[in-house]
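User: Please check token order:
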Amino acid sequence: MQYAKLPGLTWDGTIYQNDDMGILEALLPTGGYPTAHAPAMLELPDGDLLCCWFAGTYEGSADIHIICSLLPKDAAAWLPPVDISSDPDRSEQNPSLFYGPDHAVWAMYTAQMDRQEGKDNMQYTAVVRCQKSTDGGRTWGAYETVFPEEGTFCRQPIQILSSGRWIFANWLCTDSKEGLSGDPTAFRISDDEGKTWRMVMMPESNGHVHANVIELDNGHLVAFMRNREAFRIHRSESFDWGETWSEPAPTPLPNNNSSISAVKLQSGRIAIAYNPTCTPDPHPGKAAWPGLRCPVAVALTEDGGLTFPIIRYMERGEGYMGEENKTNNRQYEYPCLMQSDDGALHLAYASHTRAGVKYLRFTEEDVLGQKRERVGLYNPTAAQSH
């Protein structure tokens, strides 16, 4: 017997309803670039969504630059991406999006020198730049170098605390024999809306990067970090608005030395998107690259990140398990998780081994496994069946 095939996802931004998962999903237009990595998202005041990422031939090469796609409110598809950056001498990476007090979208990203013979990683030459858009991400102005100190890297967008303080998580890369193992976490703090910044270091944080800062209560902050040892997501706390931090400590969540994304939800829970895999034999102080970046999970915590009783695999990939089968999976990595004003959760990540960016829309109830009406998740007349 022959069965009709469901329409597959295509790299054109069309949003489909996945009845199996109970979610909405799309593959964003690639813009014709062979690779895509490290997406970031932002909801605009009018309800439009932006997603940006870095694209080009290969991470670290000078043709890598930042591009941005727009999803107009209630639209059925993401629009083709437009260029943000275009420095011919630097690899522009790890964008984040922030809506500034000047009513412009700020794209913050790293810009490192092109590869040099005998050196595969030039992250120690990176600076942090900012480009702005005043028309909702359709066009972008010239770049400004915000943090010129070489080796500065970033991933999470600027966070605004309840006091009005801005905090921007960085890590500092060096050209060392230990490679990426020595990268410590640092925070840029501004009390004048980004006009001036000062740096605060996290103690004993070598090899702990991609810090995601969340305010649990007034002045009580927590940061969740990628671990270069590929062992566990780590956690640090501050009780004084980010002035001082505790030494990073492991959480129960595995980490495969890949990026994570954490956000405080409207319910008060914290959600973390990550790859739930790790190396079984971590070596203290040594970077490990186990390779498996699949599946993508979302975990929920109600105690500030000490325990995570609820975990759901949102991207199952090819579904192969075990050491002998792991190479059959493609990579689904570097998730960005956000919640829009209507309560919906939005997840984007590099998909199909960086062939492009995949986008999912779901709710907190979907992660919890609770039945609920699909009202408010999406305009049901706009999404196609998948």
